[in-house]
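Today's session is about reading a structure prediction critically. Students often jump straight to the picture, but the first step is always the sequence itself: look for stretches that repeat, for charged clusters, for runs of hydrophobic residues. Only then move on to the predicted structure, which in these notes is written as discrete structure tokens rather than atom positions. Here is the chain we will use throughout the hour.
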Amino acid sequence: MSTASAHALVVGGTGMLREVVLRLAAQGYVVSVVARDAARLAALATEVPSRINPIAIDYSDNEGLSASLAEAIDRFGPLTLAILWLRPGAPGALDTIARMADEGAGEGASGRCRFFRILGSAAADPALQRSGNGSRFRAMEGLDYREIILGFRIEEAGARWNTNAEIAAGVV
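Below is the predicted structure for this chain, in token form.
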């Protein structure tokens, strides 16, 4: 697939997914990046100005998120890839983004939107019940929904969380 006109969305792109944004931009994607910290977002956007579309918004504002994504989709085309690191305090954001990616998948996109939701390591704990486990998103015709569960490494000196670079490499 040619990524010359591919449109990706990354939520969490100024933090642990920063390298993901830069790699996608280098591959030819236009990357819309949602972040709350406008200064960090502006600094990221200057690295590849023609490929990074900064969206400075708190994604718990569903109305604002929806309007900002609609504007990005109008400008750069439907989402072909979405990578989301969402905090628990904004449950509506996932539904908003999934709906918009699903709706746009049939409008000139070459297939479905590859949709990756990143979850903390607790999501792998079988003792904890997660609601739905993504089944409603897997049922959306326009989404190819996947989950990435973060983890840690066990080394000689003990265990440690993965670094941002290791997380980015794993996501890519």
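Discussion point for the tutorial: The CA atoms of residues 123 and 131 lie 10 Å apart.
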